[in-house]
Give the backbone structure.
Amino acid sequence: MLRTGAVLLFMLAAMPALASTIHIAGDSTAANYAADRYPQAGWGQFLGCALDGSVAVRNHAVGGRSTRTFIGEKRLERIADEIRPGDTLLMQFGHNDANRVKIERYADPLGAYRTNLIRMIAVAKSAGAQPVLITPVTRRNFENGRVLADFPAWSNAVRGLAAELDVPLIDLERDSGAWVEQAGAEGSKRLFLHYSKTDGVAAFPEGIADDTHFSEIGARGIAEIVARDLKALNLPVSAHVLATRPDLARTAPLGRAACH
């Protein structure tokens, strides 16, 4: 028994202690997906591939949520229960806040959307954690070879709030839009869910043409942008973002939501 206990203590001492946790509050573009939804993926599934072993990722993002419904379903309360000093809270909303059809999701950019983000920032700060605001990720929306921003009012609200409250900002709308634009109108289809019936994708047997949600390669690429920008912010967590991130630079799908 003594020998077993000594071995266990040695193993625990050899394991790297977690320095902190990155919490993600967001929507379907950041969410985790089960294997039966593959190749659909969210960027939050792959962010851990950019980090050293001392930082964990807790992905609270859920499909269809706006800031309004995320808070209304008490998901922010769950983050408040879990978040600790030294943690980081990434906040990316906007796609569903702009939805005027499903009015229960809608949040005016200079009204409820802004107020809800302030509440999220307050949760992080009151816990001694670092809030980071993120503008809505781009959609695949081309016009004359250029990617158009679908949520400019919500992105501008995030930028304004970041400047006003001195909260670090990742301008994902700008940076992901440039990345998708560089891929081109045709080439960028592989970054999103564009599959025909004949492709035989089990999750989408009838095919799909979705310019909002990401394929594995698309989600890896967006995670790379988030990781790159997070490292450039020079926050405490930035030191734990790997200098090179080959798992996020894949050009061929791995076939599953794993780092490698």
About this structure: Residues 7-16 have pLDDT under 50 and may be disordered. The two ends are 38 Å apart (CA to CA). The first helix runs from residue 2 to 14.
